[in-house]
Amino acid sequence: MGSIASYCGGLLCCSQLRSSNSRIVSGLSVLEQVDKELMKGDERAALSLVKDLQGKPGGLRCFGAARQVPQRLYSLDELKLNGIEAISLLSPVDATLGAIERNLQIAAILSGSAAWYALDLSPQQILFVSLGVLFLWTLDLVSFNGGVGTLVLDTIGHTFSQKYHSRVIQHEAGHFLIAYLLGILPKGYTLTSLDALKKEGSLNIQAGTAFVDFEFIEEVGSLRSIF
C-alpha cells in the first residue's frame, strides 16, 4: 500500500502554501516519522505522534479539524430549504466497468467465431473449448469468489479507461480526506486490484484505503459490552 507520507504530502503542502519553507519541511519530517512507526507496525505510536503535535507548529495541518454536527434525520423539505437535492446524497452509479465487461464479452465472441472459421474447428472441439472456459470461470467463482475475473477486468479498466482510472483515484482520495479531517489517521492505500494482490495478497480488493482505527474498534467493542 502507498505510504502516509506520499498520500498526504500533497494536502500538507497545499494547506501550508502560505507558510514558511522551514515549517513545510518540519511537517514533512513529522510525516516521515509517522511513516517509520507505521512501517514498524506500531500504530499507537504513530497516532500518538500525530495527536501530540495536533494544532502545534510542525504538526499536521487540518488533521481532525472538521466540525461535526449532531446526527439526525432530515426531512425532504429541510433539504430543499437548504438547496440540497436528495438524489445527490445517493451513491453515484458508475457504468464504466460494466461497459468494458460487455465489450470484452463481445470481443471474446467475435474472436471465437474468427478462430472457428480460421482453424476449421469441429463442433466437438468447440464443445471442449467451451467446457474448458466454463470450468475455469466456475473455478474462479467457487475458489476465489470471482477474484481472478475482477483482477483482469479492473486491470483492463485502469489500462484503457482514463475515466475509470480517475474515478477510482478520486473515490479513494475522498476516503482519505474525510477520515483525515475527522481525525482518523490513514496508513496506506491501493488503487488497483493488481496492486492489492502484490501488496496485500488479496484477489477481492479493487482499491481501498486503510486507517489506524483501533480507537474506533475499541469504542465499538465497549458499546457492545454495555448493551
Task: Outline the fold blueprint.
Layout: H1 4-15, H2 21-39, H3 43-52, H4 76-81, H5 96-119, H6 123-144, H7 147-160, H8 162-182, E1 185-190, H9 193-200, E2 208-212, H10 214-226
Antiparallel strand pairs: 1-2
Helix pairs in contact: 1-2, 2-3, 5-7
Structure description:
- The chain is mostly helical.
- The chain folds into two domains: 19-53; 95-226, no CATH class.
- It contains ten helices and two strands; from the N terminus they run H-H-H-H-H-H-H-H-E-H-E-H.
- It has helices at residues 4-15, 21-39, 43-52, 76-81, 96-119, 123-144, 147-160, 162-182, 193-200, 214-226; strands at 185-190, 208-212.
- A two-stranded antiparallel ribbon has the order 1-2.
- It is elongated.
- The model is unreliable at 9-22 and 223-227 (pLDDT under 50).
Write a brief structural summary:
This protein has 227 residues and is mostly helical. The chain has helices spanning 4-15, 21-39, 43-52, 76-81, 96-119, 123-144, 147-160, 162-182, 193-200, 214-226; strands at residues 185-190, 208-212. It has two domains: 19-53; 95-226, no CATH class.
